[in-house]
């Protein structure tokens, strides 16, 4: 029996309806990016492994998809190395390239490589797929899209304000109710200093970042496992238990960590961002979350995370400030701030809440029914007028039974069907059927164009 074709685990096919809906997400995001002055770039699917290795830590390096060198890639390999069967050592000899793991390292490489051509501050966006050799599971894929937007080469906190405004507008246009969580890496450093464990900042923040997922007691257990003393944990408890509005939290944090250098600076930056945001009239609430760390090592200032309010799902957007992105490629001191929109999770939220507009499921807006040879030239003339007006329309390719043509329109979610018979040709009118309501009406071509537009 012939085996059916398949695709690799962790990858997906997208049919016309899914692609139409995904494009609705991408187009919405892209329009907002460009409205705020961000410019598109694209980078190759593959990068030199020398650009990728060592940028994501030991675990991240294991998740890189490596590409075998072309030709006889084993010809120059030493026999002793082959006998050792050490895959990691061998892979660097037979593979010089790999699929990109994210869009951040390619951005750093792009900025360094093209620094003489770029206008700084460099406001860029990038919507492309990335690949990770992860274990596939629900919500985790080996190939997925990232929608990144960054400002490179300037320290101003106005850029954080700009990106928060972008986030607010994107999700407002998608009709998703969100909360924007805000923290600062310097505040986290100040917390570690205030409890007498500055050298254990990473251990403390990694545990704190799980507060929403595992609860306070489990966080304390993890801190014990990471050799944080009971005395330090006791000092940490008031920080984790902070409640109230943003001003109350900032006041409490000021009392707890305001005497530390990093803590004072982090609080000042948060106050400045909130002051700048005040006249912006955002639709989404901003919430200070002193436990937010996002588990990433390279944030140096603001940390941003977005949660959907009406669906139980992880973060659907996040990012922050990083002060030395290009340092990994020998160009130190270039600051940046950026966020990434999770297209797949956004898709899941829109699907669960049934928020996709009807037009996001249909590329064709009008179907002309084919009644046969006599009506075809007239129908083609109407079709041409619709196309000239920029309306997506099609004529059914054969004079099939009306039921079959209507079923075609229904299955493709085409909102309007036009019937042109002998009477319509004589009166120079069309019979328009609204596929959603079932209503029918006589209408002229010009009226049809106005209605569909």
Kindly list the characteristics that best describe this protein:
Rossmann fold; 19 helices; globular
What would you note in describing this structure?
- The protein is built from 19 helices and 16 strands.
- The model has no long low-confidence stretch (mean pLDDT 91).
- The strands form 3 sheets. An 8-stranded mixed beta sheet has the order 1-5-6-11-10-9-7-8.
- Helix content is 42%, strand content 17%.
- The radius of gyration is 28 Å and the shape is globular.
- The chain has a domain at 362-452: Rossmann fold (3-Layer(aba) Sandwich), CATH 3.40.50.800.
- By secondary structure, it is an alpha+beta fold.
Low-confidence stretches: none
Overall geometry comes to globular
Query: Which CATH class of the domain at 362-452?
Result: Alpha Beta
Largest sheet: 8 strands, mixed
CATH T-level fold name of the domain at 362-452? Rossmann fold
Tally of helical runs: 19
Query: How would you state the average pLDDT, rounded?
Result: 91
- Based on secondary structure, the structural category is alpha+beta
- Fraction of residues in helices? 40-55%
Task: Give the radius of gyration.
Answer: 28 Å
CATH architecture of the domain at 362-452: 3-Layer(aba) Sandwich
Strand order of the largest sheet: 1-5-6-11-10-9-7-8
What is the name of the CATH superfamily of the domain at 362-452?
Answer: Anticodon-binding domain
Number of strands: 16
Strand content: 15-25%
What is the terminal separation in angstroms? 51 Å
């Amino acid at each position: 029996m012939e085996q059916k074709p398949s695709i690799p685990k962790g990858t997906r096919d997208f049919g016309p309806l899914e692609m139409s809906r995904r494009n609705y997400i991408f187009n919405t995001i892209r329009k907002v990016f460009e409205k705020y002055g961000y410019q598109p770039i694209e980078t190759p699917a593959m990068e030199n492994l020398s650009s990728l290795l060592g940028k994501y830590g030991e675990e991240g390096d294991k998740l890189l998809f490596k590409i075998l060198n072309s030709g006889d890639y084993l010809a120059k390999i030493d026999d002793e190395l082959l006998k050792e069967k050490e895959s990691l050592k061998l892979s660097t000899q037979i593979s010089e390239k790999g699929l990109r793991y994210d869009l951040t390292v390619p951005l750093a490489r792009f900025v360094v490589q093209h620094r003489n051509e770029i206008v700084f501050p460099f406001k860029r966006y990038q919507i492309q797929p990335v690949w990770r050799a992860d274990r596939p599971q629900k919500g985790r894929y080996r190939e997925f899209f990232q929608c990144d937007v960054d400002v490179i080469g300037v320290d101003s906190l106005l850029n954080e304000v700009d990106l928060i405004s972008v986030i607010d507008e994107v999700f407002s246009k998608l009709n998703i109710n969100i909360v924007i969580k805000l923290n600062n890496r310097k505040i986290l450093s100040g917390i570690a200093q205030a409890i007498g464990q500055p050298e254990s900042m990473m251990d403390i923040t990694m545990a704190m970042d799980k507060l929403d997922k595992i609860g306070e007691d489990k966080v304390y257990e993890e801190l014990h496992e990471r050799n944080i003393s009971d005395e330090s944990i006791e000092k940490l408890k008031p920080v984790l238990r902070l409640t109230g509005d943003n001003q109350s939290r900032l006041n409490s944090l000021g009392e707890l960590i305001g005497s530390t250098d990093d803590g004072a600076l982090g609080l000042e930056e948060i106050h400045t961002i909130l002051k700048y945001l005040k006249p912006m009239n955002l639709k989404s609430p901003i919430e200070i979350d002193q436990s937010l760390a996002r588990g990433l090592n390279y944030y140096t200032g603001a940390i941003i995370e977005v949660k959907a309010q009406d669906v139980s799902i992880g973060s659907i957007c996040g990012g922050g400030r990083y002060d030395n992105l290009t340092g990994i490629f020998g160009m130190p001191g270039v600051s940046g701030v950026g966020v990434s929109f999770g297209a797949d999770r956004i898709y899941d939220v829109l699907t669960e809440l049934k928020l996709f507009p009807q037009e996001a499921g249909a590329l064709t807006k009008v179907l002309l029914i084919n009644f046969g040879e006599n009506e075809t030239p007239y129908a083609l003339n109407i079709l041409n007028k619709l196309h000239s007006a920029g309306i997506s329309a099609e004529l059914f390719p054969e004079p099939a039974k009306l039921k079959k043509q209507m079923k075609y329109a229904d299955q493709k979610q085409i909102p309007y069907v036009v019937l042109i018979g002998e009477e319509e040709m004589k009166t120079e009118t069309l019979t328009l059927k609204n596929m959603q309501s079932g209503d029918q009406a006589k209408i002229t071509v010009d009226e049809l164009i106005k209605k569909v537009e």
